[in-house]
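So, can you check this record?

>
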Amino acid sequence: MCAALWLGRVPVLRALGDFLVREDAVHHADALYVLGGASLDRGREAARMMRAGCCDHAWFLGSNVPTVLESMGMPMPEAEVSLQAALRAGLPPGSGSVLRYGTSTAEEADAILFHARRAGHDTIAVLSSKFHLRRVHRVFARHPQARGITVLLHGAPAVLFREEAWWRYEDGLVMLANEYLKLVYYIWRY
């Protein structure tokens, strides 16, 4: 039995990661909304999506200030950090803006749907980390303001680990564990 568990560990571990990835095909959307956090990953992917013609404008969210920046006397919110990462990765100047709102996925969903509805968008792309997408999907699917708006989810690949082999990296282990804990919390809370 121990040998069977050992031999089957890779497919089981891979399935744990795959379950969290709930991604849609994004061909074109009225706007791209980039959730706060993982600024390098999400900024680079936002630039790539915009260069590929996903949409005409990207909105970067998040009001949390990364502690490393705070400690250096640079209190930039995640929205601005992600925008700067996207610009360094080739986002065309003027095609990205910040929405300095949201300290959680739920708050960011509120801001995105309010903004999208005011702008008259009927199809939006939401960019986050790949392992974050299951929870993001649940938040938008249950949100009353999402009616009439098609929300397409896209995942940014991680810079610090490979999602398909997350268990080989400390950052992958931390990300997966945190995301399962947050998924349970969101099921209980929202």
Q: What stands out?
A: Residues 170-189 form the longest helix (20 residues). The two ends are 40 Å apart (CA to CA). The first strand starts at residue 31 and ends at 34.
